[in-house]
Structure formats: C-alpha cells, structure tokens
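Translate sequence into structure tokens.
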Amino acid sequence: MTPNMTQPQTLDPEGLAKEGFDRSGIAGTSKGLLRVLDTARKVSRSDSSVLITGESGTGKELIARAIHFNSSRRDGPMVVINCGAIPSELLESELFGHEKGAFTGAHRSRIGRFEIADRGTIFLDEIGDMSPELQVKLLRALQERRFERVGGTQTIEVDIRVISATNKDLENAIEKGDFREDLYYRLNVIPIHILPLRERREDILTLVDHFQGNLRSRLSNFQVKEFSSKAAQALVNYDWPGNIRELENMVERISVLVEKQRVEIKDLPGRITHTDSDQILPGVASVFDRGMGFNEAVEQYQRALIFHALNETGWVKARAAQLLKMNRTTLVEKIKKIDLEPEPEMPVF
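Result follows.
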C-alpha cells in the first residue's frame, strides 16, 4: 500500500494568529501573501539567512521586519541599509565602520552597521546593486561573522542574522559576472518571493482600507472614504506597476484632494481609469490625415512617452529616466522644454 503522505498546508490568517505570528501591520488575505507569511513564520524560528525577492514596492522590508520581530532576536536591533542608495566607495565604511584617518574626511572612528546589528538582524536591501569588490568582503564577513573596520587591524566578531532583498534577477547577474555565485548561495539559504500586486488583486481593496486606517490613526481630522463600485473595480483592474507603494501614495492623494466622503471613478488619476489622452500615441496614418509635419509628430510622440513614463513612476524623475533609458538631467531639461506638468489630481509629494 502507498503510504498516506499529506502535503503541508499554508496557514490562513486565523492559523497564523494561533501560532503567535505577528503580521506587523502587513495587510492582505491572498493565497500568495499567506504563503509568504507562513514561510516567514517558519523562518523566524531559525537564524538562517533569507533572500527576499520581488519587484520594487512589494513590501520586502515589511517581510524582513516581520521575520525579525517574530524571532528570538526581537529584543535586539533591526538594522536596515540600502546598498543601492549609498555610493560603492562609501558602502564598505557604512557596513563595517572605519578608523580615524582611514581615508580623506575620516576625522574620527565610526562603527558600522554590522557592529550596530550585533545580537540582532541586519537587512541588506537592494543587495544586487553591491559592487563585485565589496561582495568579496561581505562574503568573508558572513562566513566568519568577523571583520575589520576600514583602515583597522582589530578583528571584530558579531552575532547577527542576515536578511537581504533585491528586485533583480541574481541568477542572471551571476551569468553576466556581476554577482558572485558563492555569495548568492550564502544569502539564499531560505528564498522568499513576493508576488506583485497585479498577481494578487484580491489584496488591493484590503490594502486601501488598511492605508486609510493608518491615516486615521495619524490625522485627527481624517475622514475615511467610501469608494463607489466603479471606482473600486478600477482599482482592482489597474496593474499597479509601483505595487503597494504606489497604492499607498494614491490613497493619501485621494484623502487630500477628494473632499467628499464618496470617491467616484472620475476622482481617480487618469492612469488608473485609462483616460489620459496624452498616453494615446497617434498612429502613423493619423499623422498624415491631420496634416502634421515630421517635427510636430516627433514632438508629440516624445511628449506622450515622457508623460507616460512619469505617470508610471509617480512623477519620480530618476525612476522615469531609468524607464526611458536616458540621463535624469536630460529628462529634466526635456520636461522644462515641453512645459510638462502633472495633472491636478496627481500632485507630486
């Protein structure tokens, strides 16, 4: 007879609560999210390294914090460092600290994030942006749990748990020689992948309520909004390229700009309701039908492309420039030249 092998089941929200797992403010009930939370629950019992992957804005840091605060290290520090936001020449000092005189401007000794995270957790966000040279030093620190400050000779030992995250394909980066394979396997002991919001649409309206609840706790005069059925459906149908971060920003914008309690579909940004006329690129045939010249047609295409990229990125010019594959300063100059501004219902925060 074949033995009765039962597959482990993912816990539902009540099951997570019964197990004593604190979701740490993470909202949603989709199967994809519950699988992530259940894995986080299991991982929090150990000190294994965790690699969290997913698109920007999916909540990777929230999952890392949930792991830390449900672990035996909860009373220790949770230290976060964004490896992509710090120039590579300064990142080593941020991680490991430096001694006085180690480099120009090092007027005094400074401890690094690894030392600060002792007996706690260090979260290395955007680990895929780390330079290959620093990857070697990080690998040694992770293997031995010891390191030297920049310009120092004293070996410092630490007791830390490492959680890292990236929105990049590290396996592809390994093939290109941009990321060390041995470091990848050191970080990727327990992999956790967070689905983008467009693949768990059942969480969207739950998140809207959650973000409104956060605003109500922060603002004494905040009025919770009710979304009409058409407005709610538009939110569910939209792909949310900026994921949870974009949704949270939208909820705050609506709370500021829509004064009535009920939000109608006309109150939503055009990119969500697909009513941005500037996003519609004219076909080649229509260029001739409308008597447009070459320069005018090119200018209109350029304007539409830039407008679309800005809307896709919440009018964050650095991200829009990356999407358009152009220099940020070039994009800023073009925006000024064509006098492009966000729509009234989409202010820049």
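Note: Residues 277-282, 344-349 have pLDDT under 50 and may be disordered.
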